[in-house]
Write a structure and sequence with these properties.
16% of the residues are buried. 74% of the residues lie in helices and 0% in strands. The longest helix has 23 residues, at 17-39. The protein has one domain (15-78). By secondary structure, the protein is an all-alpha fold. It has helices at residues 2-9, 17-39, 43-54, 62-78.
């Protein structure tokens, strides 16, 4: 328990369960979009899928994770064929 407190003093915190759930769900959706875009030779779904898989590594706020994920999923819906 003392290790967690020393990590918190450095500014490192563990993500909450809702963050982890969102990262997993958007990662699965991103993987499916990437596979679809690659199979159908469509660049937009393929790269949106890559973005959906990778963006949780750059975002630490849960609300921002869901906002960006929803925007990317909306972009995936718009660029479907």
């Amino acid at each position: 328990m003392n290790e967690l407190k020393s990590l918190e003093t450095l500014g490192i915190t563990l993500p909450g369960p809702m963050y982890m759930l969102g990262a997993i769900v958007f990662g699965i959706v991103g993987y499916a979009a990437y596979r679809y875009g690659k199979k159908a030779a469509l660049p937009a779904p393929k790269w949106i899928g890559v973005a959906l898989m990778l963006y949780p590594y750059a975002i630490s706020a849960t609300w921002l994770l869901y906002a960006v994920g929803a925007a990317l999923c909306l972009g995936l819906y718009v660029y479907r064929k």
